[in-house]
Amino acid sequence: MLAKFTGFTLIGLDGEIVEVEVDTNNGLPAFEIVGLPDAAIKESKERVRSAIKNSGKRFPNHKITVNLAPADLKKEGAGLDVPIALGIIKASGQLADKQFDDTVFIGELSLDGGLRGVAGILPMLISAREKGFKRAIIPAVNAKEGEYIDGVEIKAASTLKELCAYIDGTGELPVVNKLDYDVISENIQYSDDITFVKGQYVAKRAMEIAVSGNHNIILVGPPGSGKTMLAKCIPSIMPDMSFEEALETTKIHSAAGVLSGEEGIVYKRPYATPHHTASRIAIVGGGVSAKPGIISLAHNGVLFLDEMAEYPRSILESLRQPLEDRVITVSRAKASVKYPASFMLVGSMNPCPCGFLGSKQNYCKCTPSQIIKYKAKVSGPLMDRMDIRITVDNVKYDELVDKTSGEPSEEVRKRVNRTRLIQRERFKNEDINSNAEMGERHLEAFCKLSKECEEIMRKAFDSLRLSARARSRIIKVARTIADMELSQDIEPKHLLEAISYRSEEV
Amino acid sequence: MRELTRDEKALVFLDSFECIEYKHKKALLDLAGSPCEIFKSTQLISSYFEKVGKQQLASSILLALKRSDYVKEVISNCLIGADDVITLSSDSYPEELANIPTPPLVLYARGNVELLKRKKVAIVGSRKTLPLYAKKAEEIASRLAMSGIAVVTGIAEGADTYAIKGAMSHSSVISVFAGEVGRVYPSTASELANSLIKSGGLILSEYPCGRTPRVYSYPVRNRIIAGLSLGTLIVSGSKTSGTRYTAGYSADYGREVFCLPYGIGVASGEICKLLIKNGATMVETAEEIADQLNIDLTDGKEEEISLTDNEKTLYKLIKEGITSTDILAERSGLMIFEIISALGLLELKGLIVKDVSGEYGAIK
After folding, report:
1. What is the CATH classification number for the domain harbouring B261?
2. In this predicted model, what pLDDT tens digit does every residue of B1-34 receive, in sequence order?
3. pTM for the complete prediction?
4. Complex ipTM
5. For residue B267, which residues of chain A lie inside 8 Å, CB to CB?
6. Nearest by CB to B358, which of A357, A372, A393?
7. CB of A500 within 8 Å of any CB in chain B?
8. SS (H, E, C) A80-142
9. Which domain holds residue B343?
10. Between B329, B341, B356, which is nearest A497 by CB?
């Protein structure tokens, strides 16, 4: 007898339908799976056998053939265990003969017949919705991920036994409740708060600007000056994620299998801090099955590279293209996948190998060639993409009069949200969201400079010896500063402030 | 290239022997009376070196003299990359330099040799000069150059570079290299050297084509910088900085030594404080230097700089010695974005300078 159930497999960030057909024939007992299964699926034979036996069903003593259609699609992951097991049970006549053409079954089996969680539930559910399925049955462990998907009924099963009862019509499965995204996103707690950063007014202001306009920022300063502490506060002032953004990011996290079981959706902007010994594949993405890398996990969030000059050149250079295009295409033998990678790059580094260049109290002992070598580790084109560069100096705590706490992150975040809103409004007919993404065409349209501003630009070029390519970067930052003050035009003071964030070529 | 006189050829020839110490060359010249005697009197050469016990040196010269084309070859080789050559016997040899105990026998020049006729002041300092002092050096160099005084310096980054930048705009800068004039070291300064030549400046060196700078040639070079100049301004330097040689030579030759003032605990200015303690003149402006040297500066046009209230407040605080933006923000009571743009304007107006460490200092 032939049985058919529908499962899903993940190709990149998209779920693909897999028709699981099971047929039992007379002959020597055998169990064959065909249709380009990966190792995890081949091994499912043993899981399925034990799970069926331990769920009070009989494993048929027949020649069993499982076909995963379409036959030319490479399937991976253990998520197909459930449809295979159901197929075998039904094919051996132990299940009611009902059609479940509009239902998707996803889940891995444990030997005792329980359902284990699977990576990539969210993108699979989204695909299922798009492909017109009415119902999806997922492991109870993954139920959280289903809470934010509308338009498809999601049920959670925790054992194969329950599932069989449901199909037989003798039991019911709990429906996963829909949650409202706004409620959860409102109560976000951050561990670091900018209110605890004493002094560093310029750095705090620069960070607010960077976050407001999604500008990349680099903090340069001697060791122990608080660069890392400042950078850690960035998530707490990042603008709230819209539901669409959250869904995009969750999709990637789900596909990568890094989603925590507690929240079904990534509602905090991601903050990725890869160590400088991480491999290029880990950061950009890759591996046999073209998995997303850290830059994709940081999509809609922050990628913080502490001690940027310590990263291998090849890693830093590989960031250039995603910084520009905001997507990364990972091509491997098994698949070629386009992952979104729109992140804000935050870097920190010392001014020289010993860290004391320019310090008054400590004399820098580095030779000029050492300093040049150190700075050259971050290439010109990459440095070119850092819109804001600031120097962070040791806070002279004794000299600070005002030792009370500064503005809390929440206040700053409110302003940032407002500024982002202005930008979204401005670019609603464009394919970009923030000032940092502006190209020459946008600069022409949205960043007209007055005569007075042009004059300041000219003066700055002469006296600060700015490079020609610094110009558009300065204007973009000036646009953000103007937006922060709700100003329609870029005024001289905005431009001046933007120029000051281009401290000497680092 | 002009035709060299016989004396000049003799000096270039003698100078080309790297194996012979300077003191022997000088003694030989003193014995010979006129440099061209070297070509004539082989007797003189061999007897001198016999006396000092270095016969093998004599033979190397005499062997070279026997080959008829050698002198021609050595002279044309020495001149590759140089526009002109000035020898101790040339009319254009600067008098100040001739007066020092160890004047270079030959100077190779690239650029405008006329600058040597001007009054000259040296401005030198270390590579790690704080921006505030670098700016100051640039300003002083510019002011001196504007009045037709040639600024003498090296080519290293830091103080030298800023002195060149300041003086270059008034086409009055002499850079002395520690290797051949045709090759710039550090190579990162090549562009600066090119624009220096284009601006009508001069590059000098006592080394012929093919000589790369050695560690020891820098202190040796510094005697030329000190020797050319009426006075030397030391911009910066740690206690062991190479600028101490320049200051030392300058004092030995009876020239003035000027230093910029530094505060307590500023490591990059130790040498200046040390020199001031030992009697160097502390200066802050080009006018003070000119007064000491009895030279007149043309009237610089002091532009009236108008400041807004915020700028005035901040400028005053910076002048009081408050350098960090954090403290400025607290003392002035202004919003941080007001401060940042006002500081930007003050910087554009040339009143303050930002440090590598992000602190500010007033230059006027």
Report:
1. 3.40.50.450
2. 678 888 888 898 888 888 888 999 988 888 888 8
3. 0.78
4. 0.71
5. 360-363
6. A393
7. yes
8. HHHHHHHHHHHHCCCCCCCCCCCEEECCEECCCCEEECCCCHHHHHHHHHHCCCCEEEEEHHH
9. 309-362
10. B341
